[in-house]
Amino acid sequence: MDRHTEIIKTKLINFSDKTTIKRLTIAFAREYNQVDIEHALVITPNGIAYELSGIAESVNPEVIGADQLRNSIIVHNHPVLAGEIMGDSFSLNDILLSVRNKVSKQYLVSGVRRNTFVYSGSLSEKEIWLEYKKARNVMLERAFSREADIDWEREEIIKILAEKLKGFDYYDYF
Fold first, then answer.
1. Separation of alpha carbons 57 and 79, rounded Å
2. Assuming Cys at both sites, which of 32, 128, 138, 154 could form a disulfide with 88, CB separation 3.0 to 4.6 Å?
3. For 118, how many CA atoms within 13 A lie in the half-sphere containing its CB?
4. Cα separation of 86 and 83, whole Å?
């Protein structure tokens, strides 16, 4: 168990009801887009929605178990720094969690930010980690060559992964 993440609520849902899932996702985004600690909503194929509370730097959905995470949908937030309107996008840890647990889809909310990614490829955690590092190097090369102005480092890395990796899709909305 993760001593920094706790399950604060569970709710039974119909996983095949896309309207309910959309409603839960939007409600989560409204409630947690400006809070100082990370939270997550994990919607599992077996019909349980878990609300989790973490710490400022992380929330760990793995507290519910790998069997629950397989093919699940995760929504989580990143706190917004003072003076900003949003925080950065998905972290390497967010991506690795999806690969390791075969998560169906991840949503992220951070202030006005609404991002989604899906990874349906077959790369291992180590291979994804290496691809992330390559994408980070591409992002840095683009920044240093002034090919691109980089406002959000992780967002740019995710976009590069979406360009280069088969089965990796990224959206600026949900």
1. 8
2. 154
3. 11
4. 9
Residue for token digits 């890395």? 157
The residue to which tokens 């609300």 are assigned: 51
* Residue 105, domain CATH: 3.40.140
Token reading at 56:
């400022």
- What sign has the CA pseudo-torsion 97, 114, 105, 42? positive
What is the domain range of residue 98? 6-119
Domain count, the chain: 1
According to the 3-state scheme, what is the secondary structure of 83-132? CCCCCCCCCHHHHHHHHHHCCCEEEEEECCEEEEEEECCCCCHHHHHHHH
Task: Compute φ and ψ for 75, nearest 5 degrees.
Answer: -120, 130
In tens, the pLDDT along 110-145 reads: 999 999 999 999 999 999 999 999 999 999 999 888
Laid out side by side, the sheet with 48-53 consists of 6-12, 48-53, 39-43, 73-77, 105-110, 113-119, 168-171
